[in-house]
From TrEMBL:
InterPro entries: Methyltranfer_dom, SAM-dependent_MTases_sf. It comes from the Bacteria. PANTHER family: METHYLTRANSFERASE DOMAIN-CONTAINING PROTEIN, PTHR13369. This is Methyltransferase. The keyword Cell membrane does not apply. GO terms for biological process: methylation.
Length: 278
C-alpha cells in the first residue's frame, strides 16, 4: 500500500530513521524530539495535500517543485523520499531561502542522502530564476510577505499548482484602523489582528483567482495544533476569458487597504499561450 495520507506520513516520519535522522527529528539516542511533533504533523498534513494533487499528474514527466522560504527544506526532503520509495519517481526540487546558513545545511543533507534531484539557492523568492519549467510552487510558513513572493513567483513562472500555508502577515493590521465599514469590529486590537489575517488570505485568494487559478482553502492540521494551519491551494485553469483582478481591487477598496501582492507582479492579464493545457 502506498503511503499517501497524513497518518501514514506521520508514522513514516516517526519510524523511518533514513529520513528523520538527517532532518534532525531525533536525539542522538534515537528518540524522537518532543518539540518536533508539531512540525512533523504540519509536514505530513501539507505533504498529504500535495500527494493528492500529484496523484492526478502524469508521473512519466519530471515534476519540478519550487519550495519557497524552504528553511531546512523538510517538505522537499520528505516528498523526495516518499516519491522515490512509494511511487518510484524522482521529481526535481528547488529550494530558496534568504538564510545562507540554512541553505548550506540543506546542501549538506542533500549530499549525505545522495539526492541529485535537488538544488538549493540562497536569496529572495522573488529573485529566483531557473531555465526549468516549475510545475508546483510550495511554501510552508514563509514569514510575512515571503508568502506573497511565493504566490507572485508561482504566477510569474506559470506554475500549474501554487500551494502555500502562510505564516504571520502584519501588513494590514495597522491599515485597518479607520475609513472602512467594519471599524466597529476592528477598533478592538485582538479582533483587528484576526480580521487582518482573514482579509490578507482573502486578498491572496482573490489575486490567484484573478490570475486564472482555481482556489481552495483547507486546514492541514487541526487549529489546536497551530492557528497557522490554512493551506491556500491554487490550480491553474484553462479558462482565461474571465480573468480579472476586480475581486481583489474591490476588497482592497472596501477596506481602504493597500495590499502589496500586485507590487511583485505586473498586472498584465495572462494570455492564452500561458494557459495550462491540463
Ligand atoms: C518560519 S521559517 C519557515 C521555514 C520552513 N519553510 C519550515 O516550515 O520549517 C521562514 C523562512 O523564510 C525565510 N525567508 C524570509 N523571507 C524570505 C524571502 N523573501 N525569500 C525567501 N526566504 C525568505 C527565512 O529565512 C526562514 O527560513
Amino acid at each position: 500500500m502506498k503511503i499517501i495520507n497524513k497518518a501514514e506520513i506521520v508514522n513514516l516520519l516517526e519510524q523511518e530513521g533514513i529520513i528523520s535522522n538527517p532532518l534532525g527529528f531525533r536525539h542522538s539516542n534515537g528518540l524522537l524530539k518532543k518539540d518536533m511533533n508539531k512540525k512533523i504533523n504540519e509536514i505530513a498534513g501539507f505533504c498529504e495535500q500535495i500527494l493528492k494533487i500529484i496523484n492526478k499528474y502524469n508521473k512519466k514527466k519530471e515534476i519540478v517543485f519550487l519550495e519557497c522560504s524552504c528553511g531546512k527544506s523538510y517538505l522537499s526532503f520528505v516528498l523526495s523520499y516518499i516519491f522515490e520509495k512509494e511511487f518510484n519517481t524522482k521529481p526535481f526540487f528547488f529550494g530558496v531561502d534568504t538564510n545562507d546558513e540554512l541553505i548550506r545545511r540543506c546542501e549538506k543533507i542533500r549530499a549525505d542522502l545522495d539526492y541529485e534531484n535537488m538544488i538549493f539557492k540562497h536569496g529572495r523568492t522573488i529573485d529566483f530564476n531557473t531555465d526549468k519549467k516549475v510545475d508546483v510552487v510550495i511554501a510552508l510558513h514563509a514569514c510575512n510577505t515571503a508568502t506573497d513572493e511565493a504566490i507572485a513567483k508561482g504566477i510569474e513562472v506559470g506554475a500549474r499548482y501554487i500551494m502555500v500555508v502562510p505564516c504571520c502577515q502584519g501588513q494590514l493590521r495597522s491599515q485597518l484602523k479607520d475609513h472602512h465599514p467594519l471599524t466597529t469590529v476592528t477598533q478592538f486590537g485582538l479582533l483587528r489582528s484576526k480580521f487582518a489575517d482573514i482579509l490578507t488570505d482573502a486578498l491572496r485568494s482573490q489575486f490567484l483567482l484573478g490570475n486564472g487559478y482555481y482556489v481552495e482553502l483547507l486546514e492541514i492540521v487541526p487549529p489546536k495544533l497551530t492557528p497557522k494551519n490554512m493551506l491556500i491551494s491554487a490550480r491553474k485553469t484553462k479558462n482565461t476569458s474571465k480573468r480579472s483582478l476586480e475581486g481583489y481591487h474591490q476588497l482592497n477598496n472596501i477596506f481602504n487597504t493597500n495590499f502589496s501582492l500586485q507590487d511583485y507582479l505586473s498586472e498584465q492579464p495572462l494570455n492564452d499561450d500561458q494557459a495550462c493545457a491540463c
